[in-house]
Design a protein that fits this description.
Layout (H helix, E strand, L loop, with lengths): L1 H21 L13 H8 L3 E4 L10 E6 L1 E2 L19 E7 L6 E7 L4 E6 L2 E3 L1 E6 L8 E7 L4 E8 L3 E8 L1
Parallel strand pairs: 1-2
Antiparallel strand pairs: 2-11, 3-4, 4-10, 5-9, 5-11, 6-7, 6-10, 8-9
């Protein structure tokens, strides 16, 4: 009887450890790159803007984007990945052309899918990193952008707003 009990305990402990391990690394120091500049922007005074508007400042910038239910968001292009749940939120913001072409980081305060569209085409991410347990940032994604206006689309967001920061690399 004891071997069965031991196997049962191992299975229970393993099942409980699985979800925590699946969450990934925890802590601000677990990102693949430095996020100090982004954290400073994310915790500072940030204005709220509605989905569909232009970013109010030149880069680097941080804003809180007011989102809409996914079905009402009217995203300019279909997201590369469909939301996991039908009751999620989505939105987009437009950015003026950066002063120069280069790699830019878009950091998010919560879990979400991010698409960047430039010159009518989806821009593939160059790299991404994420961690739980980092107050202010959940995910950071790098994109190689031309010196042209671009649109940031957010989808699969659990809440009706999300804080984002856009910085150069």
């Amino acid at each position: 009887m004891r071997p069965v009990l031991a196997v049962f305990i191992v299975l229970i402990v393993g099942a409980n450890a699985g979800p925590a391990a699946a969450d990934g690394p925890a802590g601000c120091d677990k990102f693949k790159w430095q996020i100090d500049k982004e954290l400073t922007l994310m915790v500072g005074d940030t204005i709220a803007i509605p989905s569909g508007t232009r970013l109010p400042n030149a880069l680097p910038v941080s804003v809180i984007v007011a989102l809409k239910p996914f079905a009402e968001a009217k995203l300019p292009t279909t997201p590369e990945r469909a939301p996991k749940t039908s009751d999620s939120f989505a939105g987009f913001v437009q950015a003026a052309a950066p002063a120069r072409a280069g790699t830019f980081k878009i950091s998010l305060s919560a879990e979400a899918w991010i698409d960047v569209v430039q010159d009518g085409h989806a821009v593939k991410s160059a790299a991404f990193s994420g961690a739980t347990g980092c107050e202010g940032i959940r995910k950071s994604v790098k994109f190689d952008l031309a010196a042209a206006p671009f649109t940031i689309q957010l989808s699969g967001v659990a809440a009706n707003s999300i804080r984002i920061a856009i910085t150069g690399d």
